[in-house]
Amino acid sequence: MKITKILLLLAMLLLITACGSKTPFKVQKPLDKASLVYIYALSQITEDDDASDPEYSIRINNKPYMQRMKEGEYIVLNLKPQAMSISATKKEISEQVLEMNLAVGKTYYLKLSSSEDGVVDFKQVDNTTGSKEIIKTGLAGSSEESTENIITEFVKSTETESMEVKAVAPAVIPVATPQKVTPPPAQNISKTDEIMKAYEMKEKGIVTDEEFKALKINILNK
User: What is the pTM of this model?
Assistant: First the structure.
């Protein structure tokens, strides 16, 4: 009998030590456009309890939440402000479902407990009661919400730093200023050269003799 009590005391000591290493409760505020939901279970271990008592499984809109809970733990969820079905199961025997209409900016406390035969009692408590009781628990697991969770009811944090997209100014292509084209200077052509060109035109049949004579007179009269 003494050995049984010693073993139970050792099991309780290990459990207390494990709970002591957990992240203590931290008050949070709902994210922007979200509802904050705390789910917690107070420690109910007695000398007659089994130290290997199974964990609670949580489902949100019939989708499993990846992080399970033990007694003496809590989880915190930022959910979309809408109609939500949240359920809890222990020992895969009894599932207790809460149908809720979540409001934006509101905080909710959901309390878990179970009977010796594994029947789950899952209910919403008022914020005054919940805020006093939940400080006796520690955070379940090592993270508050898993980014890989398939549940789409979560509201993402807006504090996550995003890459800033800088507007790139369109490249300015310089337009060449049209340059003024200066005509080449007129060549000084002598009257003799002009007459010779007119003569060649006459020889090629471009102008007649009479036209050649007229051109010759015009050239000489310049």
Answer: 0.58
